[in-house]
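Please predict the structure of the following assembly.
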Amino acid sequence: MDSPADTTPLAALLAKVPQPEPGRRKGALHGSTVAQLRNLIVTGALAPGAKLNERELCLQLGVSRTPVREAIKTLTQDGLLRALPNKSSVVAELDVGEIEALIDVVSTIEGLAGELAAARATDEAVAEIGMLHYRMMLHHTRDELPGYFEANKAFHRRIVELSGNPVLLWIWELLALRVDRARYSSNLWPKRWKMAIQEHEQILAALSAGDAALASQRLREHVRNGLSGLVAALKDRIAKPDGA
Amino acid sequence: MDSPADTTPLAALLAKVPQPEPGRRKGALHGSTVAQLRNLIVTGALAPGAKLNERELCLQLGVSRTPVREAIKTLTQDGLLRALPNKSSVVAELDVGEIEALIDVVSTIEGLAGELAAARATDEAVAEIGMLHYRMMLHHTRDELPGYFEANKAFHRRIVELSGNPVLLWIWELLALRVDRARYSSNLWPKRWKMAIQEHEQILAALSAGDAALASQRLREHVRNGLSGLVAALKDRIAKPDGA
DNA sequence: CGAAAAATTCTTGCATACAAGAATTTCGGC
DNA sequence: GCCGAAATTCTTGTATGCAAGAATTTTTCG
């Protein structure tokens, strides 16, 4: 009943998480605990439906229950966990219906970002976003899926930042968490990556031209296409769980 | 140094907050603490920039620091508070620029809600939303500003619910917190209430007809008009602080 | 042997104790 | 009398203790 190996697979996952040094500064525990736990959830290391035992998390993260509980509360608010009264929180299910709901919202939000960004796009900003696009292509040629995801996300994020609207960025960040989770869950190369690259270039062109309506429309469609493909991949994955 | 009257005006504000009975159920403190504190911030009872002393909040709310700290974390994530490392959290400033940023986001979000809701609008749902509209008018005739605000919010909320998109509702709730704060801050009857009523009726008509494009456009414009008026009122208020 | 009930164990929710950093006050020097 | 530095006080960040509710195991009865 005390053997560490079989109490739960969670132990193994957490064992390799780098722990903050004892000689740390005060006030850094909450943030780092949230980041570690969030990463485990978004990457799928903690599977949907998994129960979170606070005591166990404390042991593995090397912190007390206070920061762990705070992190759980934070991630619950972000929609990554579900809280049950007087019971263990569980990792939120990755509901395909919810991801379909995400499509409408994210595409609309990014469409707005594109509209606003086009009006503010300097040559420098467009060049910077273009660089992120090429970084994404580079990762693709190298077969580096995580780097590809990251650069793709940075491309979109930078456009939202360029919109100059802090509320929009805030909302986008919240939505991006869920999108990331879905992406990691599929863990496949998007089948439409070639088309995605074309769409990125067309978005860049619209931004560069300062054409708000066009940038908005192209971003909306690009996001919709991408997420629709993701949903299709997830449905496939559900149909045949072990990627044949 | 111990006289309760002058340590801070916060004490007076909190003194009248109904406290949960000692014979309560376990697990209700976090939620109620968040609700109480949020209400104080949204209504403006806690002014923007005010520092939150945890110990004092504990005394006044009759709970320990744990739920208070959790509530502070929650409201910080909602953007109502700002956290400073190793220092007291403060009530977020009510920045007019941020409210202007809200206009674009909220109008877009509600526009999407209208688009989706129109496709799902049954006669029953439209009637229900119409009822909320009439309730709002009733509060107007009675000069009941809080009731007016509440019914207006319920009208909009119900449309978002009707969209059937849970992600959209989630985002809308987050945005509505900030909108409410701005509304309470102005604490004026909207000058354009007569126009707002007309717009509501036109929105209802579009929903009833199932015209997604029209419902979307009308909601977008209605929200934009309303929030623009709000911003104008706030700018006025800043120019001449004591409403002459 | 199976099932239901009681007792035990475990887990969360809240309160509190302790430590590190910030703010304030006081004391010394000029 | 004023400025600066040291000491004190105060406040937040983290850990732990205690109680209520849930889960599990054991025991007892049919």
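Chain B touches chain A through 30 residues (CB under 8 Å). Chain B is about 70% helix and 5% strand.
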